[in-house]
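Sample pair:
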Amino acid sequence: MLRSEMAIFLQKAFRLPLKTGEPTSSFVDIPEGASYAEAVESILDAGITRGCSADPLLFCPNDTVNRDTMASFLARALRASDQLSALAYAPGRESLQTISIGRDLWNVWVCEDAPVREDIVTYLHREVNPYFRWLSGGRYDIRFQYGADPPRDVAQVLQNCRNREGLTGFPEGSNIFVGAAVGYGTGGLSWRGVGSEDQRYARGVWVDNSGIYDTTLYGHEIGHAFGWPHNHRDRSSPASEPLHTRMDIMASLGQVIGTNAHNLFHLGWIDPNKVMVHPGGTATYTIAPPHTGGEVELLMLPLGPDRLISVGARVKEGFDGNIREEGVELYDIELCGSYPGCKHVYLPPGARSNDPVVLDVRDSWTGRISTVRHGAEAIVEYEVAVQSRQNRIFEVRVKETSVLKETSAADGFSSIGVGRTGVCGLLTIGNVDCWDWRGGASIPTGCLCV
């Protein structure tokens, strides 16, 4: 039979809803008013067909359906039928499929009225999993599956699919909710929490109706659940950061690309052995992008136990292919303890525009910063100059000088050190103060002051 006839066959056999009243087809080669047009739209919405060409989108209605094409049609139709049956009983009900589980597992719960065009789990595996696998340098393999029936209070919110009010319980594990309107247009909501009964960790992401197939949105909200704050100014959110950059997934207008090296280290996706703390004076470093095997993948210029200048490399590769600039990027990082996950990212002092500071070969940055050194207030001057580049490796020269003021500071720090989970400072009186990367006072493991 023809592909146009197969569309009618599948729509009737699996009782797929018809889309009536549409003036034109999604496929450019289906004429207006064709007898099979509504059936084709129906199997497109159900994820049964992807067409015979993506650009432009063609269906090839007059082509013959071969045995292999029919097998693909039927397999997708059966899967779509299972999905529709599952959604008819309860939101998020377990789907009839087996999915292998990697290093982390996220359950996916779908609202009953979500405009699902294809199997959501299949979509997440195809679009989102490769991004995080690349971003983590192959260390993080997110797998998605349909969750079992949700707790009663969560199920109630999913069933009305109108708002997220009343969501008081956190289902166990890591969860993604899709299809509920959260009131922000194309938007989402992410939270992290600990269950009251067994103290197990919970991570949740909520993506609304209009953002179900927005890969950037999933990446942004999952980033929140991992612990990344915003990289843009939002005065209504205590976890927001002053820097607005479209070069970062955590900016509201960002692309699905790599975030800065400091955030990757914060998350544990850069080996601490690849992080260098500038000891003072003048030194030259070879800095490579994260996950490329370079000797140094993040350089930290200390300003105090809760503030530093991060120096990392950025090149066009993988998902980073659409970035505007290549070079060595600088950020002024300030930890804070007023909110979980709080960390402020500023442009370095002396930045000449509102864009991130990215240095090319023969570019340099100089900044003068007031801080505390050796128990006294000091003015520290850093000069960072990119001397050369070979492929993805940058040779960077750092010169640091400091001038002590006359006013002493009894609570000053004589040195700092970094570990996998935080920063420690050695006070001049001999005590050690530590902060984790979320800004909370603690004693991070693996932290050694030198």
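The helical segments are 3-13, 37-45, 67-89, 120-127, 129-135, 152-160, 215-226, 261-267.
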